[in-house]
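Need residues for this backbone.
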């Protein structure tokens, strides 16, 4: 190893420099700025490397500064490096909160059911399905016997009546799609590859699977074990991050993050769209955003990412991605996160607080008019309307041809509480009239309740229209600049900075075609970034 050009003690001192805020100190109570000093080139490199690459500089990187500077070319190199993706991901993880894994069982139950599960008897390795267990074995979590299956002359597994009242068959070995070349124990009923149930419902549909008469199909393609869920959940987060990184890495307009109708898929997600989404226990993704026919050539084990176009055109970048809409389950939550992250406009209650819940105005069912609540909801509800054609607690696009604004069957149900409404009416339409003012909305799609004519018109345009408004009036550029300032400078900007330097930077950002890397470069080359509080 070559001898460093600086004494070892000096190198140790440089490498041990603490991570401190590099921003100019905000004014004190008198309005005067605290004393600051411009950082030296070694500390500046450390500061840039920590901020943009998420690590401290190496000794070799520091050594290049002995006779050099942290110039524009070095900043360009850092922004062009793959390591800059760390910054992009950390920044947008803070904006989008893509903690799909934190939902624990919810996405597995809601998205992957009927999820095949491992039996809790014997050696615990017999894959079984809860619907087959309930309807054929007579007990929700009943697995088959821990012995090879016996079949009748028609090739159907033979069930034996057990002393506990259940009926059980044996197991067979099957090669699952998620582990080709291996064999696992599967209860014989689950291993069935029959195409329909006795009523003619296809076993590739949720009606067929929920009858308990359909198996998992060839190579268990319609079922999943825990390893599949553990693979899919991080893939949803990665899909969202790829949607973010794509425009930034390609120096395309940052606005594409919020407006593109494209998404990337790999083998696991393609298999989910083709074989698991149509069997969801709730119609969350019954119609995937990419047509399954386009995904036929992607096996589960193919982890390469490919770009596909989503339908309908209402899709809007990350704002209608599976990860975003599963993380934020309601239209209000989706609009709220967007407003906080990309417009810097949080919805906050009035400082005087809310009126008493006993006040007559507090009983108003329309939140845009309810006392106190209207302070936020008069602005939140129009924004939330842009997600009105996407299912809450899910991601299904509510196609007007399938889910009209008004359904007479659901209206009749709402008017007769004793009538069986059915899943679709209860899930998507107003059928529970809790206030006299709600009666006018009986049978109306829930997303349209209390909407004004203008909001309904905007609803049919999707979230993209909300983004386009913010692009036009400059709010997206302004907020993006402020959010990056907060991350890089480790503090809130002053009012003078917002109305001065940051305003100019946001205007240049917008005029320059929303180049994210150029905005970061402008911020780290600003004199304020090079100043250190004494």
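Answer:
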């Amino acid at each position: 190893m070559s001898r460093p050009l600086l004494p070892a003690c000096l190198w140790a001192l440089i490498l041990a420099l603490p991570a401190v805020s590099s921003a100019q100190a905000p004014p004190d109570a008198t309005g005067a700025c605290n004393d600051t000093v411009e950082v030296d080139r070694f500390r500046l490199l450390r500061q840039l490397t920590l901020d943009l690459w998420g690590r401290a500089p190496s000794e070799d990187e520091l050594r290049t500064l002995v006779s050099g500077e942290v110039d524009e070319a070095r900043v360009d190199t850092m922004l062009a490096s793959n390591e800059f993706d760390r910054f992009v991901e950390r920044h947008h993880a803070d904006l989008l909160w893509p903690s799909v894994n934190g939902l624990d069982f919810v996405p597995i139950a809601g998205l992957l059911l009927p999820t095949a599960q491992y039996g809790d008897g014997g050696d615990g390795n017999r894959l079984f399905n809860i619907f087959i267990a309930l309807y054929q074995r007579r007990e929700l979590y009943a697995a088959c016997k821990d012995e090879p299956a016996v079949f009748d002359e028609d090739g159907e597994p033979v069930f034996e009546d057990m002393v506990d009242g259940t009926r059980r068959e044996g197991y067979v070995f099957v090669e699952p799609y998620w582990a080709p070349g291996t064999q696992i124990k599967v209860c014989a009923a689950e291993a069935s590859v029959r195409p329909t149930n006795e009523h003619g419902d296809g076993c590739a549909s949720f009606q067929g699977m929920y009858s308990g008469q359909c198996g998992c199909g060839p190579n268990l393609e319609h079922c999943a074990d825990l390893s599949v869920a553990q693979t899919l959940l991080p893939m949803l987060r990665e899909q969202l991050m790829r949607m973010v990184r794509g425009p930034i890495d390609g120096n395309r307009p940052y606005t594409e993050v919020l407006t593109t109708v494209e998404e990337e898929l790999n083998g696991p997600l393609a298999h989910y769209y083709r074989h698991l989404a149509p069997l969801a226990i709730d119609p969350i993704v019954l119609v995937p955003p990419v047509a399954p026919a386009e995904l036929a050539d992607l096996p589960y084990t193919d982890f390469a990412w490919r770009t596909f176009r989503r339908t309908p055109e209402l899709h809007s970048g990350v704002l209608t991605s599976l990860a975003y809409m599963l993380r934020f389950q309601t239209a209000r939550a989706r609009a709220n996160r967007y407003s906080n992250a990309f417009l810097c406009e949080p919805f906050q209650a009035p400082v005087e607080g809310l009126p008493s819940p006993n006040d007559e105005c507090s009983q108003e069912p329309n939140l845009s008019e309810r006392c106190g609540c209207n302070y936020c909801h008069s602005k939140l509800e129009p924004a939330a309307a842009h997600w009105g054609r996407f299912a809450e607690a899910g991601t299904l696009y509510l196609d007007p041809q399938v889910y009209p604004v008004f359904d007479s069957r659901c209206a009749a149900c709402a008017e007769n509480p004793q009538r069986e409404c059915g899943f679709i009416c209860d899930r998507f339409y107003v059928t529970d009239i809790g206030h006299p003012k709600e009666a006018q909305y009986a049978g109306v799609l829930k997303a349209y309740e209390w909407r004004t004519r203008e909001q309904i018109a905007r609803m049919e345009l999707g979230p993209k229209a909300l983004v386009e408004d913010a692009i036009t009036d400059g709010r997206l550029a302004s907020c993006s600049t402020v959010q990056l300032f907060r991350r890089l400078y480790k503090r809130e900007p002053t009012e003078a900075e917002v109305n001065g330097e940051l305003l100019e930077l946001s205007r240049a950002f917008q005029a320059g075609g929303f180049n994210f890397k150029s905005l970061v470069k402008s911020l780290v080359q600003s004199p304020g970034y090079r100043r250190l509080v004494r």
